[in-house]
Design brief:
By secondary structure, this protein is of the alpha/beta class. Strands 7-6-5-8-9-11-10 form a seven-stranded parallel beta sheet. It has a seven-stranded mixed beta sheet with strand order 13-14-12-15-18-17-16. The longest helix is centred in the middle third of the chain and has 15 residues. It starts with a helix and ends in a 16-residue tail after the last helix. The structure holds NADPH dihydro-nicotinamide-adenine-dinucleotide phosphate (NDP) and N-acetyl-L-glutamyl 5-phosphate. NADPH dihydro-nicotinamide-adenine-dinucleotide phosphate (NDP) binds next to helix 3 and helix 13.
């Protein structure tokens, strides 16, 4: 793999070896913008050929997926199917170690993938980068023991909170990798692109915090909304709880009804407040209540905010529209269109819109994402693309599923 090593080393040094062109914007009923990308003359394959002078076959970066038998891991595998420069060479599982991926997820049968192995049996010399899709609380020790040259995107909550004491308070256990915590970059892609590009370890945001911070951070940074009295009402599909069997997630427990949970105590509160406080440059406290919905995937956050004096809902719309104008995956809907979770199913889009409240001076912001894609695996892939110097949206251009 000498040529791959040459390529990797160039990428790890922050080089962006290849560029993509032919951006084609397609309007989908005036709502979504799709970019079709194709390789320009300086492709990674060509760089690779130049690197060893004789390679004539495309080589890819070798990707490991820890927790491949879970929901977010399987979504990573689905997305990587269309990635021209990433090839999965390692997949781990816990209870399902030893099995083939198609025995765990039959819809992935057409892919040529290695069998699932236990983390303790994984050969990390066979990978250049990792997606870590393990339950929170298990990841710190595992990542701490890995070779330090690996680029890692951790989808768990283990490295999201910069304040160790806050982590220990909200997660109820000691932090086991405090040195690594200092290195970890919080990976809200559209907000922290530059930091992500040079990161080795990225803490991928939680799904609720993604749906909340994408609309609020630009508005707070521009002082368009007050940072007091922010009320967030969020709703999630059941896949947000992972694939592990839990009584509370049985069909009989969640079908034909909804319920709130984690009222004032949900572990995403400190994550949301961390991001909003950084944007405001002062401590922000929010009222956040999540709800479990009888649907398999998707998430909506309805956010009630107070506007700064003299600001109108049109000002909020104009600002969000401008802020995300060149973003492929964050879309401000037009006019009074209401975001719907069905419109983002299976895709990496965040759709949002702003509405006037009946209470003068207040606005209602609604954002929707697919918790498993923009709220997890899709954003993780955007982040790894950035970390590897690859065009950020590669592998993610799929249209939403409808219905
Ligand atoms: N689901 C979602 O919407 C989102 C989840 N996340 C985060 O992503 C991470 C993965 O979530 P999700 O995919 O839903 O979880 P799942 O429960 O669906 O999958 C967990 C995976 O980790 C493996 N695993 C479980 N315990 C251990 C262990 N002790 N050691 C090693 N491997 C283990 C499981 O293996 P096996 O199947 O063999 O038991 C499985 O592959 C979590 O940290 C979650 O908080 C982030 C954003 C959104
Ligand atoms: C429905 C449901 O249970 N959702 C999860 C959040 C899932 C998520 O995205 O966040 P993490 O990555 O932090 O796990 C919860 O409320 O804990």
């Amino acid at each position: 793999m000498a040529s791959l090593a040459a390529l990797s080393s160039n990428l790890f040094n922050g080089g962006c070896l290849w560029k993509y062109q032919d951006e084609l914007k397609v309007s989908n009923a005036g709502k979504l913008r799709i970019r079709v990308t194709s390789m320009a003359s300086s492709s990674p394959a060509q760089s690779l050929q130049f690197a060893d002078g004789k390679a004539n076959k495309l080589e890819k970066l070798r990707i490991g997926v820890l927790g491949a038998s879970g929901y977010t891991g399987s979504e990573i595998i689905r997305l990587l199917r269309n990635h021209p420069h990433f090839q999965i060479t390692l997949m781990t599982a816990d209870r399902k170690a030893g099995q083939s991926i198609e025995s765990v997820f039959p819809h992935l049968v057409t892919q040529d993938l290695p069998n699932l192995v236990a983390v303790k049996d994984a050969d990390f010399s066979a990978v250049d980068a990792l997606f870590c899709c393990l339950p929170h609380g298990t990841t710190q020790e595992i990542i701490k023991s890995l070779p330090t040259n690996l680029k890692i995107v951790d989808l768990s909550a283990d490295f999201r909170l910069q304040d160790i004491a806050e982590y220990e308070e909200w997660y109820g256990q000691p932090h086991k990798a405090t040195a690594l915590q200092k290195e970890a970059v919080y990976g809200l892609t559209e907000i922290s692109r530059r930091e992500i590009q040079s990161a080795r370890l990225v803490a991928n945001p939680g799904c609720y915090p993604t749906s909340v911070q994408l609309p609020l951070i630009p508005l707070i940074k521009s002082n368009l909304i007050e940072v007091r009295n922010i009320i967030i009402d969020s709703k999630s599909g059941v896949s947000g709880a992972g694939r592990g069997a839990k009584e509370a997630n049985l069909y009989t427990e969640i079908a034909e009804g909804i319920h709130s949970y984690g009222i004032t105590r949900h572990r995403h509160v400190p994550e949301i407040e961390q991001g909003l406080s950084e944007a405001a440059n002062s401590k922000v406290t929010v009222s956040f209540t999540p709800h479990l919905m009888p649907m398999s995937r998707g998430m909506q956050s309805t956010i009630y905010v107070e506007m700064a004096p003299g600001v109108t809902t049109q000002d909020l719309k104009d600002h969000l529209g401008n802020y995300y104008e060149h973003e492929e995956f964050v879309v401000l809907l037009k006019n009074k269109e209401v975001p719907h979770t069905r419109h983002v199913r299976g895709s990496n889009y965040c759709l949002m819109n702003v509405f006037p409240d009946r209470i003068p001076g207040r606005a209602i912001i609604i954002s929707v994402i697919d918790n498993l894609v923009k709220g997890a695996s899709g954003q993780a892939l955007q982040n790894l693309n950035l970390m590897m110097g690859i065009q950020e949206n590669l592998g993610l251009g799929c249209l939403p599923l409808f219905p």
